[in-house]
Amino acid sequence: MTNKTEINGLSLAVNFSVIALCLALNMFVTGLPQKIFYIVSYLSVASIAYGLVCRKIAFQPNRFFIVLFIVLIIFSLIRLVLAIQVKAIETAPSGDSITNISNYLLGAKRPLLGAFVLLNLAIYGQLVSLTTLRAGKVLILLGLLITLGFGIHEHLYTANVRIKLTTEAASMSSYMILLIYCAWLWLSRFETQAYWKIADVAALLVTFALLYLCGTRVTIIIALVAVGLLFLLQTYRLSMLKNWRISALVVGLLAVLVLMTSNRWVEGVQDIDNYGSNSSTSPGARVAIWGGAVNFIQHHSGFATPDERTTQTRQFITAHYPNNLEGYTNVKYNIHNEFLEVTTLEGWLGTASLALLYLVTLAGGMKRCDLRWVALPLLALFVAGLTDSVLPYNQTPPFSLWRWRSAVYGYRYR
């Protein structure tokens, strides 16, 4: 191994360890993980620029990563242009509009920088050792355990029945925890020892406990059914049809899941049953907001300001859902659906850029690439985005990119 290769391997090992540390700290430390993210991002931009100038980047074996890099750049630039334009034309924006545009600015800048880190680690990720990957897993598990301690404290000793941790909303906290679990799941596929299987069970239980404290229904479904169980069954090649113990374990876990979260599900079912007499509920508010968003899109195909969207969707809600105070109030924050959120503010151009993220992954899967490392967080973002707007939160873009970058290392060991 040459001295330059040794230096690159050491720097990437440190880089991965820092990313794992950020994943571990982000739910109970504010500010430091974001600062580390920027430092790593700027170093990655310099590394990619150096590789291009010196012609040391091999494009052919990294086609998928380069395409994903380009898609992330396009997605970020469209969002950046929207934020800059809205800041320029709004003369007296409301406080909520200022918050939304600030989130969009961060949601453009961080994926833009993160795209360079993603490409950098994709190209040189094979230099990271399996020992470093294991150290990252230990950091992530310790972070989950410490986060659970903070979550229990918040649940017991504050007014928050649903914990928020370092975020502004319990739902946002649950999305970030879910992305941490996605990172853990992917790194778990490289271990077969019994003690790592025990660690997998521990990570699953801690994640479930945190999501239970967050009280967000959709993330519990994704984490424990759509992502967790299916991934673990496939990774360890377990057959529910041939092994009755595994089948009994899965059924038992699902039964415990239903029993422990029954209150939230009963509440949701009752809200739907009573929709005719009381639409001002969480599900009812979403119906009203989505109707207002669709109506808004029919009259706007390009960029729009948050205040403009809020005013017109509220007019629609007042006309068609006059008693829906919940929808009327919460529409000022977001549209509670990822594609509708993007389309109402960024127009069809923004929608196309968001769809490209999913289409590129789908195309890679059709070419029989092992893309579970990117499919896991995208599946989580897609399903969560059906009933909420995830990407506008200022912590989501760098967090999902951290998760993708940790998985890129693992991809090299497939």
What does this structure look like?
With 414 residues, this protein is mainly alpha-helical. It is 76% helix and 0% strand. The protein has helices at residues 3-25, 32-53, 63-89, 95-124, 130-157, 170-188, 194-214, 217-235, 244-260, 262-273, 282-299, 306-320, 325-330, 338-366, 372-384, 396-411. α1 (3-25) runs parallel beside α5. The longest helix is centred in the first third of the chain and has 30 residues, at 95-124. The protein is globular and about 60 Å long.
Strand content: under 5%
- N-to-C order of helices and strands: HHHHHHHHHHHHHHHH
Radius of gyration: 22 Å
The secondary-structure class comes to: mainly alpha
Termini Cα gap: 22 Å
Largest sheet: none
Q: Assign an overall shape.
A: globular
Tally of DSSP helical segments: 16
Q: How many beta-strand runs?
A: 0
Overall mean pLDDT stands at 78
Low-pLDDT sequence parts: 3-9, 406-414
Helical proportion, percent range: over 70%
Q: Oligomerization state of this entry?
A: single chain
What key attributes describe this structure?
mainly alpha
